[in-house]
Amino acid sequence: AIKAAYNWIRSIVAEAEIGMIYEGTVVKTMEFGAFVNFFGAKDGLVHISELAAQRVAKVTDVVKEGDKVKVKFLGQDERGKIRLSMKVVDQQTGEDLTEKLKAQRDADRSREKQSRAGE
Question: Which GO terms describe its molecular function (predicted)?
């Protein structure tokens, strides 16, 4: 009970940290993304381009309201809106995939350059 109270108070007074992964709940879906409640009473936007590694046609193809998701806190935009990403987080384990995705992109680029050089 004390730990629950401590966590509740901490969620009110503490600030979310950029680069950290949090568990949240999808509270609203829009054409351009999904709003996720995370870190206590904070809501942030997962833009449609940050929902999955592959192209997403419709937000509701990936998430629906009430879904539990893992998000990475990317920061705030110039208007103070919270930016989140799901595509850089393994939704099963909560592992940060940023480095893996970067390495994969780099490998794809070098293969592309090699194939162009061989033409």
Answer: RNA binding
